[in-house]
Amino acid sequence: MRVPLVATLIGILASSAADARVVRLRIERREVVLNGRWFGAAGPYEKLIGKIDFAFDPRLSQNDIIVDLPFAPRNDRGEVEASADFYLLKPVDPRRGNGRLVYEVGNRGGKAMLATFQKAAGSPDPTTDAQFGDGALMREGYTLLWMGWQWDVPDRPGVMRMQIPIATENGRRITGLVRGNFIVNERSATAPVADRNHRAYAPLDPNAAANVMTVRDDPIGTGEIIPRSRWHFVDSGTVALDGGFEPGRIYDVVYRAADPSVVGCGLAGTRHH
């Protein structure tokens, strides 16, 4: 069943627009769900976990919308490559399934489909009865698919992401200004530059005098510059402020970073005709 399965899954994924070509499917882990428990007429389910390798052709007009794609490294075919995590639940015997696939474009690398449709306890890698819930979709024979599409999701076990190429300018490193914006819910000595502890662009020089932090109380108000001597980078994604950050106030940090990710590859990998 393994060879037909791989061919079938590649066919499903490659049915997306030709501007995002599926090159290879790598199954890194495969196991039967809940020791082979039956889900209605669909029978036992299995999970497949691994990587999907994509190729994007910068010469196609459909890909013009992907910012910086022409500046990404290319393979021998002139295509830009990316790789995404995938997680699949399917009937062990695909002939017992209903021939339909439900795909969740996960928010922040997570999986919400089972909690939403099967009343399951949330889990990045469901293994227990509670984490599969009442099995509503599975009893109907649906194949369930998740795929990472963001590069910057937090470093937590089971979080799904896409490994996205870095843009350069004729091979030279690109640098530019980055703005981190955050509001804390309670007074804190430190705060993440990126939203909800996502991966941040690292500052080229964390001690540079040109790095700026401002604070404001109105979203459309002008920020008040906080003296440079009062704040500093703790690490590549965290800043600290003397006296602490105040809850409800809007802080911005502007600094120079490098290596912009071609983030549009994530959306291109998920789109379909």
Structure characteristics:
273 residues; mainly beta; disordered N terminus; 15 strands; 6-stranded mixed sheet; 5 helices; single chain
Structural write-up:
The structure is a single chain. With 273 residues, the chain is mostly beta strands. 11% of the residues lie in helices and 34% in strands. It has five helices and 15 strands. It has helices at residues 2-13, 113-118, 129-132, 136-139, 264-268, and strands spanning 20-32, 45-56, 80-91, 101-104, 143-147, 162-163, 168-169, 172-173, 175-182, 188-192, 212-216, 224-225, 231-235, 238-245, 250-258. Strands 1, 2, 3, 4, 5 and 6 form a six-stranded mixed sheet that branches. Strands 9-15-11-12 form a four-stranded antiparallel sheet, with no helix packed on it. The protein has a three-stranded antiparallel sheet with strand order 10-14-13, with no helix packed on it. The longest helix has 12 residues, at 2-13.
Helices and strands, with pairings:
Layout lengths: L1 H12 L6 E13 L12 E12 L23 E12 L9 E4 L8 H6 L10 H4 L3 H4 L3 E5 L14 E2 L4 E2 L2 E2 L1 E8 L5 E5 L19 E5 L7 E2 L5 E5 L2 E8 L4 E9 L5 H5 L5
Parallel strand pairs: 4-5
Antiparallel strand pairs: 1-2, 2-3, 3-5, 3-6, 7-8, 9-15, 10-14, 11-12, 11-15, 13-14
* Average pLDDT, all residues: 92
Kindly state the number of beta strands: 15
Sheet/helix structural class: mainly beta
What portion of residues belong to β-strands? Answer: 25-35%
**Gap between N and C termini:** 28 Å
Shape: flat
Helix content: 10-25%
Individual helix count: 5
Element pattern in H and E: HEEEEHHHEEEEEEEEEEEH
